[in-house]
Request: fold
Amino acid sequence: MIHDEGFHALDRQECLRLLAGVPVGRVVYTRQALPAVLPVNFGLDRDCSVLIRTSAASDLVRAVDGVVVAFEADAFDTAAHSGWSVVVTGRAAVVTDPAERRRLARTGPRPWIAARDGVFLRIEAEWVTGRELTGTGSPRR
Reply:
């Protein structure tokens, strides 16, 4: 691990362990040639891909199906000046296989907002990076 002024890099397994413990992250993608960030609830699938359940008619589905996106989640303790951040980068795709859709309907993340036309988006965990702030540095004023 690389250490740098209170930060250190996290390996893939630690990143995935931390991701599995939080319910909300952010999808980073391009919308109309500009960066966009959308908070979403999510889950990890058995292959460690990020799963998001959303409406088939959502702007997110139209913008990310078949393209490379980033997904970020984090947790921080502001009093202790510590926390972590993990980024998953990979191709996003709507899950279309009927058997896979049925499996995810049973095991995948539950939507926070009901949608009659719900679909699952999968972000392949092609590149997983993370870092942890250990709280050893003092804040600058």
The radius of gyration is 16 Å.
